Amino acid sequence: PRVKEAPPVLAPRRPTRQIKVGSVGVGSESPVSVQSMTTTPTTDINATLQQIAELTASGCDIVRVACPSQDDADVLHIIAKKSQIPVIADIHFQPKYVFTAIEAGCAAVRVNPGNIRKFDDQVKEIARAANDHGTSIRIGVNAGSLDKRIMDKYGKATPEALVESAVWEASLFEEHDFHDFKISVKHNDPVVMVRAYELLAEKGDWPLHLGVTEAGPAFQGTIKSATAFGALLSQGIGDTIRVSLSAPPVEEVKVGLQILQSLNLRERKLEIVSCPSCGRAQVDVYTLAEQVTAGLEGMSVPLRVAVMGCVVNGPGEAREADLGVASGNGKGQIFVRGEVIKTVPEHDIVATLIEEANRLAAEMGEV
Ligand code: SF4
After folding, report:
1. CA atoms of 332 and 252, how far apart (whole Å)
2. Whose CA is nearest to atom 1 of ligand 1?
3. Is-contact 214 188, C-beta < 8 A?
4. pTM (two decimals)
5. DSSP result, 60-111
6. What is the DSSP string of 188-251?
7. Would you say residue 1 has pLDDT above 70?
8. Ligand 1 atom 8, closest CA
9. Separation of 282 CA from ligand 1 center, angstroms?
10. Cβ atoms of 68 and 37 closer than 8 Å
11. Using the 8-state DSSP alphabet, how is residue 269 labeled?
C-alpha cells in the first residue's frame, strides 16, 4: 500500500523526556495532546462524568478536575475509574489531597508548589507515593501564585521569575529521583508566557504543558492562545496544551485541536476553505459558509470543502479541494476532486454540498 507522506511541520519537536499521564504519553515521542478542565463541582459526580464524556467525544485527550476540599478528594476514585480519558487532580493549598488523589487512581496530579505550604517537607513522600502508583505530576507554576521569595526578588511575575520558580520546584522532585513530571509556567500575557517557556526549554528536557492562563472570553482567549502556542509549537516547544477560555470546556478542546491541526501537528479533519467575499461576490458567502459548516459539523474525516464567492479564485480553489463550489450568476458549479460534477441553482448549493460531502465521507470510512 502507498504510504501517505506526513504533512510538513514548522519545526521538529524539542527532544524531551517522556512521561505517561495514564494511557496518554506526554513528551516528544508522543503527539501533542489536548487537555481541558471540568467546570462542574467535582462532588457532583454525575455532572462531572457527563462533562468528561462530552469532552472525550470532542477529542479531549486528558481532563483535569479541581479538588478544593475533602469532599472533592473523596469522590476522585469514582471519577478516575469511570472517566474514559486520564484524569488529573488539580490541587492547591492542601498536600494531603495529593496523597488521596494518587491513591484514588488519578493518572496525574497537578500541584502548584507556590500554593502548597510546607511543600518542601512533603515532596519526598509525594514522590514516593506517585512512584509507587505510577502517577505523574504537573508542576504548575502560575503568575498569580508565585512563591513569595521569588516575588520579593523579581518584583513581579517576569519570565525569569516563572522559570526560576519552575526550575527550583523541579529540583525538589529530582533530588528524590522523581522525574515523571511535566512543567507549566503560565501567564496571562502571551509575550511573557512565550518568553518563559522559551527560557524553560533551554534549561532542561522536561515535557512542557502549554497554557495562557486566564486568557479571557472565547474570542480573546482563542487569539491569545493561538498566538502564544503557535509561537512555541512552531519552534517545537510544547508537549501538551490547554486552552483556557471563559467558555464551556468543549470549546477549549475545539480551539486546541484546531491549533494543532493548523500546524500539521494533528491530522486535519473537516476544513472549510471559504473566501472572505468582496465586491465581486455573486452570492452571500458568509451565509453559505456558515450553513455548510453547520451542516458538516462533527465530520471526522479529513475533507477539504471550498466555498467560493465568484469565478476569480472560485474554480481554482474548488478544484484543489475534495469538494467545492464556485458561485456566480445565481448558480453554483459543484466540483468533486477537481471535476465539475454538476451546476445547481443557488438555493440548492448548500444541500448539494452537504450531500456530496456525506457521500465522500462515507467512501472515506466515516460512520
Ligand atoms: Fe472576492 Fe471572488 Fe475572491 Fe471571493 S473568490 S474574495 S468573491 S474575488
Report:
1. 35
2. 278
3. yes
4. 0.90
5. -SEEEEE--SHHHHHHHHHHHHH-SS-EEEEE-S-HHHHHHHHHTT-SEEEE
6. SSHHHHHHHHHHHHHH----BEE-BTT--SHHHHHHHHHHHHHHHHTTT--SEEE---SS-HHH
7. no
8. 312
9. 9
10. no
11. -
Nearest CA to ligand 1 atom 3: 313
Q: How far is CA 271 from the centre of its chain?
A: 18
Whole-angstrom distance between the N-terminal and C-terminal Cα of the chain? 23
Residue nearest to atom 2 of ligand 1 (CA): 310
In the three-class reduction of DSSP (H, G, I as helix; E, B as strand; rest coil), residue 20 is classed as strand
Shortest CA distance to 289 belongs to which of 261, 270, 263? 270
Model pLDDT for residues 44-67, shown as the tens digit of each residue: 999 999 999 999 999 999 999 999
Contacts of 362 (CB under 8 A, 6+ apart): none
Grid cell for residue 59: 477529542
ipTM given for this complex? 0.98
What is the three-class DSSP state of 181? strand
C-alpha grid cell for residue 170? 523541579
Kindly list the protein residues whose Cβ atom lies closer than 6 A to any atom of ligand 1.
275-278, 280-281, 308-310, 312-314
pLDDT by residue (tens digit) across 270-280? Answer: 899 998 999 98
Taking the centre of ligand 1 as the mean of its atom positions, its distance from the CA of residue 54, in whole angstroms, is: 37
Within its chain, how far is the Cα of 191 from the centroid?
Answer: 19
Residue 281 CA, closest ligand 1 atom number: 7
Chain centre distance of CA 228: 13
* Region 300-320 average pLDDT: 83
Grid coordinates belonging to 11: 519545526
Is 60 annotated as belonging to a binding site? no
* Cα(272) to centroid(ligand 1), Å: 15
pLDDT tens per residue, range 260-300? 999 999 998 889 999 899 998 888 899 999 999 999 988 88
275 marked among binding-site residues: yes
| 310 CA → ligand 1 middle, Å | 5
**Strands 62-66 and 136-142, sheet pairing:** unpaired
Residues 6+ apart with CB under 8 A from 280: 309, 310, 312
Cβ atoms within 10 Å, residue 255: 25
Q: Cell numbers for 287, please give them.
A: 451565509
C-alpha 256, offset from chain centre: 3
